[in-house]
């Protein structure tokens, strides 16, 4: 009896394993669109524009996955999630990918049943204060009240840093992004602490007089931000991972949304593989060989997406810094498609 139930249990697990392995791509294809978990609205990364259309660096990753699968970057839907809701939404299958300024940590990448296919923005945690506070360094924050959002890695990072630097502070914590922003804007706390990208976005898009605020020079952590998928579906993991690397490789090779058609006749073998002129690399992912062509044509390469959403061509004007390509002194290093 025991042996039989063991056999049945093993069989059930094997079947469940087999079905989850192939299922996300099939589910997405049958449904006709990919579902991405986003923030509730965080300009530059994931937020609706004036027409209600979602835009941002993270949205471009979601659109790129849609372009790779359907040859149509518009085949995506968003589920807005606050910091605390995001992991359960992914675990439960409510979303296919989390594309939302999420720090890759060992705990998240292992124990939560989810995993990280890559990093699309290298960041660090920082501090923003009103200029009127008269503070120019994080070292002067002893005694401050600090606003934070629940369910972020920022809470623990701040606690560790404050203990190490003998800084006493009072945390003021809220579940919803808007509540944190409003508390800071109304002076309920002296300091806003989150990822530097978040501070740049909040300063420009959420505070009525951005020039009244400064972001302090210190970054107190590494915050590698990137997408997450569920564990147990290697094909889906690969699709998201290689979508990101296609964006990065396209930038490295100088393939852009405006020259991609011309590049189809390039004699460079790496470009021929990227754009599906040489066959087989889409097939490796269970996709059409034109997967990366569609990404670049419809969404653009990583640099185009960075500039448009958060960089020089956007109000945030975040410098490329660590997010520059490896051959220009940054950390982005597209893995070779070959
Ligand atoms: N990178 C950190 C923080 C990410 C985070 O959730 N930041 C907040 C503050 S900027 C946010 O994006 N909130 C938007 C929302 O809840 O809609 C993490 O992964 O825990």
From TrEMBL:
Residues 33-278 form the Solute-binding protein family 3/N-terminal domain. The keyword Signal applies. One of its GO terms (biological process) is amino acid transport. Keywords: Signal, Transport. Residues 1-22 form the signal peptide. Pfam families: SBP_bac_3. InterPro entries: Bact_solute-bind_prot3, SBP_3_CS, Solute-binding_3/MltF_N. Belongs to the bacterial solute-binding protein 3 family. This is Amino acid ABC transporter substrate-binding protein. It comes from Pelistega ratti.
